Amino acid sequence: MKVEITIDPTYKEPKVIILTDKVTDDIEHLMQSITAASESTLLAFSHKGVELIESKKIVRIYTERKKVFVQTINGVYTVRFRLYELEEKLNPQMFIRISNAEMVNRYMIKHMDISKTGTIGVELKNGIKTYASRRYVTKIKKDLGI
User: Fold this and answer.
1) What is the rounded CA–CA span in Å between residue 119 and residue 138?
2) CATH T-level topology, domain 25-144
3) pLDDT at residue number 112
4) Do the Cβ atoms of 132 and 119 come closer than 8 Å?
């Protein structure tokens, strides 16, 4: 197998092209590895500079003052994506949109308080308490099987 890399400043995001005469098990494995790697990490910015964050370490993603922040157990980072772009990019089995301004990692949810009025209070494993907007309650219940 040959590997070729071309550096082109006009590309904002890496693009992988596989040229082959047939799809073999090795090619299938390579495609799955590349897809999993791109979905499982996120490029973020902190006071230290650029960092690569694994999606399983993300607690929540939220917007504030027209910026998008990614919060992990270790700290808060900024990203250059819109919330809807991250919703498309990240694994939908892992992340749940709870409002127009926030997504949470379903595996980081510690407790959910579903009130009779229809609101959902969400407590995350790092102690943060947030609320789902009424607009998303039906979708959240469906996604979680409630």
Assistant:
1) 10
2) OB fold (Dihydrolipoamide Acetyltransferase, E2P) (2.40.50)
3) 86
4) yes
